[in-house]
Structure formats: C-alpha cells, structure tokens
Amino acid sequence: MIGIAVVGAGHWGPNLIRNFTDDPRSEVLWVVDRDENRLTEVRARYGSVATSSDVADALRDDRVDAVVVATPTATHHAIVKAALEAGKHVMVEKPIATSATDGEELCALAERTRRVLMVGHVFLYNAAVREVKRYLDAGHLGHVYYVSLVRTNLGPIRTDVNAAWDLASHDISIMNYWFDGEPATASASGGSWINPGLEDAVFATLRYPDGVLAHLHASWLHPRKARDVTVVGDRRMLTFDDLAHTEPLRIYDKQVTDERSAPGFIDTFATFRASVRDGDITIPRITPGEPLRTECQHFVACVANGQAPLTGGREAVAVVRVLEAMQRSLAGGGREEPVR
Ligand SMILES: NC(=O)c1ccc[n+]([C@@H]2O[C@H](COP(=O)([O-])OP(=O)(O)OC[C@H]3O[C@@H](n4cnc5c(N)ncnc54)[C@H](O)[C@@H]3O)[C@@H](O)[C@H]2O)c1
Fold this sequence. Notes:
Helix content is 35%, strand content 28%. The protein contains 10 helices and 15 strands. Helix 1 crosses helix 9, helix 4 packs parallel to helix 5 and helix 5 packs antiparallel against helix 10. The chain is globular, with a radius of gyration of 22 Å. The structure holds nicotinamide-adenine-dinucleotide. Nicotinamide-adenine-dinucleotide binds next to helix 4.
C-alpha cells in the first residue's frame, strides 16, 4: 500500500484525491491546503484523512511514501523540493515549475535521492492521444505537414501564469510525445486584458524537426470550450476532439495528389477533382476512460516497482523550455526564438 499526501485541494486536487482513494494499491493519508474551507470539505467527504495547512506535517509522517502536488504552478518548486528532500516520491501537476532551471534542479534532486518524479501531463494517458501516436509511428498519415491545436474556454483565469503556461503546456507535451522531440523554435503573440502582464490568449507557432509546423491557440478568454487538434499529413489527415468522448478521432482518407503531373491549365471539373483525393472518413473505436485514473495508476506502479514514468521530470522540463521560448517571443514582439 502506497501512502499518499495530496497538497492542494482546489479545483483539480479533489480529482487526484478520488483516484488515489479508489486505487486499492494506494491510500490517501493526508490532504494539505492553505485554505481551511477546502479542508473542511475534504473532511466531510473523506473522514479518515488527516488534514493540515502546512505540508511539513505530512512530510514528517513516515507512512507517507509519496506527495502529490496540485497547487498553483508558482508554488511547485518549493513544495516538490521539500518533498524530495524528505525522501518522498513526487507527482506534481503540470507545468513542473516556472523555469527550466528550477525544473532541472528538481530532476537532479530526484535522481540523487532515487525518488520517482512524475509530472501530470495527463494527455499522455489519454487513449486517443496514444492511438494517434500509433498512427504516426506506423506512417498512416505519411509525412506530417502541420498540426493545429486549439484549447479554449472561458476561465479559469490564473493569476500566477499566463494562458500558455496553463493551457498550451498540454499541447506542447502532446506534440513532443507524438514527434519524439522538441521544436527547434517558437514564436508567439498574445494579449493581456484581465490581469496586466499575464496573457489571456496566446497564438504560437512551433517548428518541429522534419518541417512539422504546429500552431497553438490557447485562451481562457473565449466563449466556447474547444479541444480541437487537426493533423495534416501527405497521405491522410485526422482530427481529435477531446470533448467528443465516445468518438474523439476521425481519420480522413484525403490528400492532394501530385498536381505537377496534371495539365498546367485545369478547365474541366473532372481534372480539377482529380488533384484532390476525397476518400472515406473513419471513426476508430477508442475505449472511453478517465486519463487521470490511468495517470494515477501509472504513478503508483512507478513507486511500487521503481520504474521510470512516461511523463518524468526531464520530459516536463522539455515542455517548460518551449514555454520559456514562447515567453521570450511574447516579450520580443512575436520574434522567432530558439528553444535551446
Ligand atoms: N492536468 C490537468 O488537466 C489540470 C487541470 C487543472 C489544473 N491543473 C494544475 O493543477 C494545479 C492546481 O490547479 P487548480 O486549478 O486546482 O488551482 P486552484 O487555485 O483551484 O487550487 C490550488 C489549491 O492549492 C492551495 N494552495 C496554494 N498554495 C498552497 C501551499 N503553499 N500549500 C498548500 N496549499 C496551497 C490553494 O489554497 C488552493 O486550494 C496547477 O498546477 C494546474 O496547472 C491541471
């Protein structure tokens, strides 16, 4: 049985408490939050859990094997550092920290103390995202030209990080996973309207190896919740809508055929149509499930077996490096910035 302390019981933390409570291999022993109202709610639902406003109380408890951190991003570094120094395994919400330097320090500390450091890049535990990875690796889409990723909603509005750090961190983790690496450059434009200095909407372009272009639209100031991804390859194209729970993926057997073999002047409908292949649209079956549950189970398995997590500290720092390049670009008027 893995003893767990969850730090942060705000918007997201209760989902973590529920999943680690439901897993027969783990037990939530402590919930820590600075807000006494949140702790009152936790006690009403989970009577046997110890609560505190100070993480040090949970760190002193020898029964606690692992600390799960769901506090605002700006607090991650200090809490994760204290937990690792106390000899605990850690799962921390994304992004790992507000700088790559801080993230790297945590990775080095976890390696030195031989503790698991996992980061909650939850989309890598999403069955549809993993299915797309299989298509890409098998070459079903051919060479990928570009990917468009739209992640919008009205709120929640953060006060410690901008919309890119909060929302686009998911899309960067998905792109790095699908394309096995980091983009070479990033450029971004955005606007701050609600809180000065914190962009509410960010539009970014990332250049991945092999000419793959990614365009990201991240906003918490938008009338419609959207989680739309489009991948355009030279053989096939696909769309991924994370809000379409039973049918999130569509594979389009569509492509542009080589127009150079067509006559230079196209003036018939038949010849015009021949330059575009407009085939079937298929909807693969994706078994519905809660990605966070898979993520939490993976963390428990990593702690129990000493295995390296799919979304470890190093992968999370790679995401932060891209966010930092986007931040430099935002400050530089949208200039293209190297990621390394
Ligand atoms: N994976 C996802 O899809 C997903 C979704 C939502 C949020 N998140 C991440 O989860 C984290 C928390 O987000 P949220 O929406 O729950 O935020 P929130 O503001 O709703 O909740 C944060 C909680 O942490 C508490 N807190 C703050 N500082 C603390 C400290 N030093 N010690 C103890 N408690 C402290 C606050 O009182 C609050 O209850 C963020 O990193 C966010 O990016 C991830």
